[in-house]
Amino acid sequence: MSASERTVATEGTTAAPATSHTITLTINGAKKQVEVAPWTTLLDLLRESLHLTGAKKGCDHGQCGACTVLVDGKRVNSCLTLAIVKDGAEVTTIEGLSAGDALHPLQQAFIDHDAFQCGYCTPGQICSAEGLIREKRAKTADDVRELMSGNLCRCGAYSNIVAAIEEVMGACTRERDGRGNGQGRHAVGGGRGEER
Amino acid sequence: MSVSDLRLFEMRRPADLPDVCAVLAERVSRSEPTVLLAGGTDWLVEQETRPAFAKEAALPLVLDVSRLPALRGITLDGDRLRIGAAATYLDMRRDPAVLARAPMLERMGRDIGAIQIQARGTLGGNLATASPAADGVTALAAYDATLVVHSVRGERRIPFASLQTAYKRSTRAADEVIVAVEIDLPPAGSPWIWRKVGTRRAQSISKVALAGVAVREGDRLTRLGLGMASVAPVTALLSRVRTLATSRPLRDLTAADIDAAVDADVSPIDDIRSTRDYRAHCARSVVRAFLRDLGAPV
């Protein structure tokens, strides 16, 4: 069912006034005017109205990251983002990363490193990795692991995902036992806080 | 039911803060449900679990406050840090003033979900939802932050200690908009702690979390701020621990005294995330760990 169909269907069952808003989004470089209900999530708009089905609905609770897209360059869970709130924003989905048939370097690296099994989380992983690379904050494998922690892979392809991202990131060294990430420890400060 | 099947609501983007206050005052006076939406990371999920609206109920109005300039921005004026209620956790984590002067806030912000959630979630939302498990609120408790709220009656400032009254209840009136939080910062380089105990490091709700800031002069603490999540119906301020630890030299603190103060300050329960006993154990351990780092022989 498309978002617009759902609007009509829902209106028939309540006394609510018609609630539809026109918003403008730049999606993968193309400016589009779309009609949305206030409760249409960005994910539903992308998948059901615009037929960009790369972003996936996994948990629909903002926990799994399969719906990750870039909004104004920032990684967000599109399942928890109301489309109407992002009026005027620039959205990049997995469909917008490749240039025609030429794969984006991250897409190629995911293939080269066998960084997926079922592939359901992969569009979210790649969009998230693109955000991570643009942020220029990850320096080590530990950084990649932390900064990709919002993207779950139930097949457990994590080590290959990290390898694929590191390759594209151009990281020369893999840090395995170096600086700790604080896991299982408390963070204390006074000039001794970790930097990331 | 999924988020895509949300019940109907109206959405409006108010022009400015006076507009929000006016709309809110009017709707609250008529008992019409109204929601201020910033990041929406809690509220959208909540829509799935709350009871459905009665058919005859007024249509909820959602006011999108995420872009209001009055609610955005992070500023440092002397030792006073002001964080807009709709500034995101990511804004906070990247802010030079926060990094330099309030590193505990940055460290806490890392444990709020993952980057995708941090890019949307806000302190204002955390305060409005008012969960005793809220990490952001716990950090504000440790800083003894002040809430700045606005309504048609003007501005009001609520010290953290007089904010929370019961589980998800506060002294903020229904028509008051959370505009910012203000923190009187300890000197740069002061000790702090952020310790979250959960099923995993982030993307999980705390079983127990401790936030702490301190100012130490010699063998004494001249300031100790503590907040603890998920151990009471409201964010625990650990007032007995604060009083104990600032009342005598650090070397005179004993583990038994600290444990007794913690036990008196918290009232944990068994629930799906943890047990009363484990929470009490963690509460004692993390408080002792912080005081040990500060120099107490415990």
TrEMBL record, chain A:
Residues 175-196 are annotated as: Disordered. The keyword Cytoplasm does not apply. InterPro entries: 2Fe-2S-bd (IPR002888), 2Fe-2S-bd_dom_sf (IPR036884), 2Fe-2S_ferredoxin-like_sf (IPR036010), 2Fe-2S_ferredoxin-type (IPR001041), 2Fe2S_fd_BS (IPR006058), Aldehyde_Oxdr_Iron-Sulfur (IPR052914), Beta-grasp_dom_sf (IPR012675). Coiled coil: none annotated. GO terms for molecular function: 2 iron, 2 sulfur cluster binding; metal ion binding; oxidoreductase activity, acting on the aldehyde or oxo group of donors. It holds the Pfam family Fer2. Keywords: 2Fe-2S, Iron, Iron-sulfur, Metal-binding, Oxidoreductase. The keyword S-adenosyl-L-methionine does not apply. Residues 180-196 have a biased composition (Gly residues). This is Periplasmic aromatic aldehyde oxidoreductase, iron-sulfur subunit YagT. It comes from Chondromyces apiculatus DSM 436.
From TrEMBL, chain B:
One of its GO terms (molecular function) is FAD binding. PROSITE patterns: FAD_PCMH. The keyword Secreted does not apply. Residues 1-188 form the FAD-binding PCMH-type domain. The keyword Flavoprotein applies. InterPro entries: CO_DH_flav_C (IPR005107), CO_DH_flav_C_dom_sf (IPR036683), Diverse_Substr_Oxidored (IPR051312), FAD-bd_PCMH (IPR016166), FAD-bd_PCMH-like_sf (IPR036318), FAD-bd_PCMH_sub2 (IPR016169), Mopterin_DH_FAD-bd (IPR002346). Gene3D superfamilies: 3.30.465.10, CO dehydrogenase flavoprotein, C-terminal domain. Keywords: FAD, Flavoprotein, Oxidoreductase. PANTHER family: XANTHINE DEHYDROGENASE SUBUNIT C-RELATED. This is Xanthine dehydrogenase, FAD binding subunit.
